[in-house]
Design goal:
Helix content: 25-40%
Order of helices and strands: EHEHHEHEHEHEEEEEHEEEEEHEEEHH
Structural class: alpha/beta
Radius of gyration: 21 Å
Largest sheet: 9 strands, mixed
Number of strands: 18
Length: 385
Amino acid sequence: MEKKKIGIIGGGISGTCLGYHLSLYDNAEVIVFEKATIGGASTAKSAGTVCLFDDSLKNRYWDVRLYGFESYLKMEAEEKGSAGFDKTGTLVVATNEQVEATIKTGIALAKAAGYSGEYITDKDRIKEILPDISTENILGAGYTQDDGYFDGTMISNTYAKKLQKNGGVIKTGVKVTEVIVKDNKVKGLKTSEGEEYEFDYVVDCTGPWSKFTGELVGLDVPIWHTKAEAFFLCPPGKKLSYTFPVLKYPEFYALRAGDNIFICKSHLSMDLNNPMHAGQWDPDKLPETGGTDDYFIDFLLDQLEVKVPGIVDSGLVSSWLSYRAEPKDFLPILGETPVEGYILATGYGGNGVIEAPAASRDLAKLIMRGESTPLLEDWAFKRLL
């Protein structure tokens, strides 16, 4: 059987997950190139939520959400801690009838798949789950005990180990400096080490960097950067007296981070036409910590004052800024491009942990079998032309 040689640029959750799925094919030779460390950069700054029902991903893509969630549960079952699962449960608040309908549909899908879910209108019951919440001006909330959040860095490293066990290669501290193209077809790439590799396919899994990586083949990747500004709050009293669930509002989400609370503006509420929210920036200039704007912390504190007043007096412990890669429709860009053999797996935005497993499964089918899927058709590069 003739081998297919695939080079993957980027060792975050997108690149390692794809590398693993490709390594399941006997005729795949896979090398992942990561300029820093596996599961670092934007993956390390992911909240890691894979909620069974919320508005982060339309219910029409329920199978994508379920495949991701169950992939990580399986990972945890094989080796405890390998996906960093913290089972806190999730509370998704309905602020209007449209959100309510989305939640109820998601609950029905979750229950059909064997998971718990309930839609609660009893406001005393909602406050039992999250004592610090305000139940004014809400219709109800969806709740499940079965989910929580994962750790993107741990997942990436677990996928990397699985890839290597299957014969794949990981090269860290190696930057791709050139993608070799002849007659509009990928032939290989060159690295910062001065090495040259031949490949049948090169896959761009660089997320926020894909705007710049695409330029190596003359491709304008249609993504914007939106600001993922995360703040860590220390609740009054220093320690929560209850298990803080993943909390989802249309405007923001929050979750437990040790004894602190992580809070961030939701990616779907970002305005691509607002230069405070979105632009095209250089991710290499991001600091490890800090770099956040007062606008966002002020916005989030205003939200907390109205919606979760019990923690509004929390102290700010730390913060970080990351960039999300967002196409104009907030859905990923997967598959073939006008450059033959140059494949995209980017634009996951705030949903990388949710979407990467199903996207990688289907991309591996495309690369190894030439087989497309409805998901790849929906999220194809050509839709944005």
